[in-house]
Amino acid sequence: MAKDKNIVRVGVASWIINMDGAVLLGLRKSSHGAGTWAPPGGHLEFGEEPKDAAIRETMEETGIDLPPINVLACGVTNDIFLEENKHYITIHYVTHLNQNATAQLREPNKCSGWRWFPRNELPRNLFVAAANFWRQYTL
User: Fold this and answer.
1) 47: alpha, beta or left, given left = phi > 0 and alpha = psi -120 to 50?
2) Any idea what DSSP says for residue 33?
């Protein structure tokens, strides 16, 4: 039996807000969303809790260790990437840091770098899931 290529995947995103009210975004360089800005995130692994995936992905990508008690679900988006023929449901989480953190570039093959943006000055070229979230929700 042929494997169905038209599947919906689950993604997670971590919207991290520092003490100055700025949001952490990374400039993607992998083929999926290259040239767009996105919060730390990735795929939900089999058997994994979505919140745990958001915490894990944030650590893997930035080196920032999010305390689970501070990671709160804040929205869900339906994200269709027409050019790539991909479809995701993305669960978004928010964390307000009570101390400023420096994001490390831990996956340079996937991200060009991390930058803190004031919430009212986000770049226009947001990753599809990030743009969908930002249109629907307020942090």
Assistant:
1) left
2) T
Look at residue 102 and tell me if it is in a domain. yes
33 burial type by CB count under 10 A (0-12 exposed, 13-18 middle, 19+ buried):
buried
Q: Is residue 33 part of a domain?
A: yes
CA distance 92 to 75: 5
User: Looking at residue 30, which CATH number applies to its domain?
Assistant: 3.90.79.10
Query: Which of 64, 92, 63, 65 has its CA nearest to residue 77?
Result: 92
pTM of the model: 0.93
Euclidean distance between CA atoms 130 and 139, whole angstroms: 12
Full domain range(s) for residue 100: 8-136
> Considering its fold, how many domains does the chain have in total?
1
Q: What is the pLDDT of residues 5-41, one digit of tens each?
A: 789 999 999 999 999 999 999 999 987 899 999 999 9
Establish if 106 belongs to a structural domain.
Answer: yes
Q: How many residues does the chain have?
A: 139
Q: Is the dihedral of CA 92, 95, 96, 102 positive or negative?
A: negative
Residue 107 domain-assigned (yes or no): yes
